[in-house]
Structure formats: C-alpha cells, structure tokens
DNA sequence: CTGTACATGTAAGTAGTTACATGATTGG
DNA sequence: CCAATCATGTAACTACTTACATGTACAG
C-alpha cells in the first residue's frame, strides 16, 4: 500500500468488497468459486488484509452480533476505497511484478469501471503477451542442446500465449459490441436482489 | 526439504545442475532464458538454496580462483542429488501446492528421466486440467449476476485449459514417436561440447 | 568515463502458507 | 456421534523480493 496505490491482494479484496458488504469468511468462500482461478489467498491472509484496509481508510467495519452463529465483522468500501479501487483498475502496468495474472484479475472487476478501462487492460495484456511471444521466438530452440524436453515446454508457452491472444480479440469484440450500460454502482445503497448477509 | 523429497525451488535447481557444473551466477542467468517462463527466482534466492543443497548432501561445491574475474563457487550434483532429482521427477502430484506449473517444470528436466516418467507427468497434468475444466463448467456462469466481466475471465481460463490439453496430446504423441534414446547422463564425466565455465 | 558483465552475498521486508485455538449448530 | 459450516484470529514458518555492499575489467 505504498502511496495511493495498492498491492495486488489489496486491490482484489477491494474489488470483492465492491460487490457488497462481506465478512472475511464470505470473501474466502467466494474467492474459491469465481476468481479462485486467478487468486486464492488463505483465510488467514484475508483476515490480515481487511484491518489493513480499514486502517488505511479504504474500508469500514461493522460488528454484527448473532445468536445462533458466532458474531462477525462486515466490511464495506469507503468513499476513498472506491476511488482507490478505480485508480487501481485504471492503472495499466506494462510489466507487473505479479506477472500476467494482473490483467485478467483487474478485468474481473471491470464491471465497476468504464468500458475504456476494460479495453485499456485488454490492450495492455496484449502488449505484454506480444513481448513474451517475441522473447520465446527469439530463444535458441532446438539447435543448441541435445535436450528435447525444453523445446516441448517452450511450445507449451507459445500455445498458451497464442490462445490467450485469440481470447483477447474475442473479448475486445464482445466488450465493444455490448450494449452501452452504466457501470455497476459499488453497492452503496443500491437495490439489493437476494440479500447480502442472509442465506 | 522435508524427508527425502525437495521443494519446487530445490527440485528446479537440482534439475539445472544436472545439465552440468554451474555457479550461482550461471544458474540465475540461465534461468532467465529457458525455464524463465516457468520459474524465475532472484539471484539472492539461488544463493540461499545452493548451500542448503550442499548441506543436505545433494550437491558438491568447488571453489575456483580467477585472476581477471572474481573467484567463484561451482556446484554439481552428488550421487545422492541425482537420486533425489530422479525421485522428484518421478513423483506425480495430483494437486501440487505450487499449482499447475509443477507439471511443465518437471517435464522440462525429463531428459534426465525415462520416457515413462515424462508420460506419467503429462498424464498427471491432463488429469489435473480435466478436473479444472469440470469445475469451471460447473460454475454458475452468466445466469446469476449482473456482472459481465467474471464470465469473460472464466472464458479466459477455459481457453487456456483447452489449448493446454491439445498441447498435451501433441506432446504425448511426439514423445511416443521419438526414437528411443538413452536418457542424458547427468554429466558426471560425459564428453563436454562447448565448455561449461568458459565463454 | 560510463555502463555492463562478472561474482557473491547480507539485510530488511512482503506475501503467503499451515497448524492451532475456540466454540455453537445443523445434517446425515 | 461425527463431520461440516459458520466465524475469527494467532503463531510459526517458508518463499521470495528489492536494495545494498564490494570490486575488477572491458567495451563503447
């Protein structure tokens, strides 16, 4: 949380909180299904991040007493948290420290950003992958070594990069074709459909 | 390094040492090109792992004094290191803690193992990805939420998994078709072609 | 005369892990 | 009766990162 920018983990938690008020337990459960593919921190990690966000003024806590179940703490974004989330989503990193996963992770939360932001992340992802592709293609390859498996593994990388580039093209087209719609509110007092805390 | 098995990082360093005697500096440089796609530890990390391997009897050091350049330490596998590397390569983890990257990482070093080992890793990778595929397909998907981007990101995951499965098929075929060849010796006293320390 | 390659290492810090502790309720 | 779900948190540890310290030699 250096400056006004947040780390990947903090950004992801802010993003999840944008869907509505949640407990640490809720977040851990939701992370398994959904972004689990991209980012699955342990429960204890989430319990460490949440108070940090509150201390930084990005989230607010509310203690809820329950009879049948243990008491819990519900967290929601503060106004400043919403701004920081937007800034994090809008920031397109050219060479993210956390690797390529940064791009799909931010895209996951782009319902809380503008269409331009989503397209900018996709464009950044494309540039990133094209640089990788060039590097892989520049590697010595078969010629030099008697070893065979390194080449197979390189093919694995090339396959993944190429199929991801194809996905980017499709997704850009889908985003551009989608009916223009206001971005989702970050659930301040928006109509609730299903209930956040009940189950 | 609990028991006789090694961690991912230790396995990878053992694997790199199987290509020949190397200094920490060499390993860091080589890791950038080649396995860099799968595993790129910092120099300081490598300098920490190497003495650990020596302490565990898996590698041997040799100090080399140089005039023009700083002195250096060259590491090579010990007999026990070779056995542990083989065991690591042969072990097919069903749900590796370090994620899917374990499979291509071990495959990278399969020139030092039998063809059966390579095919076993590929088969394990396939099972792993097919479980992922089922999970992704079981996810609620479009219906539930007004959010659109989570679905796009899910497509990203599906695309990657499917293209990797296709690569596995191709690679299995290539491995089976390859002319049977003895596995590479782990460069004990094998003929050297190019020189390890000179450049 | 500046930057890069060679070469090793320490120090301080972040991110993340597993295992432990506690304790009620519900479903099979 | 046993296991899972709900709920939060601490402690100890591993992996890994950046920045710093040190110093030579060669290329542009």
Count of helix runs of chain A: 7
Low-confidence stretches of chain A: 189-199
Helix/strand/pairing category of chain A: mainly alpha
| Helix-strand sequence of chain A | HHHEEHHHH
What composes the largest sheet of chain A? 2 strands, antiparallel
Q: What's the arrangement of strands in the largest beta sheet of chain A? A: 1-2
**Percent of sequence in beta strands of chain A:** 5-15%
Largest interface, and how many residues on either side? A-B, 41 and 41 residues
How many beta-strand elements of chain A? 2
Termini distance of chain A?
Answer: 33 Å
Helix content of chain A: 40-55%
- The general outline of chain A is globular
User: What's the oligomerization state?
Assistant: homodimer
Radius of gyration of chain A: 20 Å
Mean pLDDT of chain A: 86
């Amino acid at each position: 949380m250096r400056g006004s920018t947040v780390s990947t983990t903090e950004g992801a938690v802010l993003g999840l909180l944008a869907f509505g008020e949640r407990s640490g337990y809720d977040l851990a459960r939701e992370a398994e299904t959904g972004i689990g593919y991209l980012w699955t921190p342990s429960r204890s990690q989430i319990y460490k991040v949440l108070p940090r966000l509150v201390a930084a003024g990005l989230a607010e806590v509310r203690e809820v007493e329950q009879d049948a179940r243990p008491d819990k703490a519900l967290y929601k974004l503060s106004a400043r948290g919403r701004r920081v989330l937007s800034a994090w989503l809008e920031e397109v990193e050219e060479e993210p420290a956390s690797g390529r996963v940064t791009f799909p992770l931010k895209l996951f939360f782009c319902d809380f950003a503008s269409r331009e932001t989503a397209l900018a992340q996709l464009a950044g992802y494309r540039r990133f992958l094209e640089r990788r592709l060039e590097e892989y293609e520049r590697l010595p390859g078969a010629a030099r070594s008697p070893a065979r498996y390194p080449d197979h593994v390189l093919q694995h990388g090339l396959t993944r990069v190429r199929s991801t580039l194809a996905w980017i093209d499709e997704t850009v087209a889908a985003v551009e074709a989608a009916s223009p719609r206001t971005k989702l509110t970050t659930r301040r007092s928006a109509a609730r459909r299903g209930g956040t805390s009940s189950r």
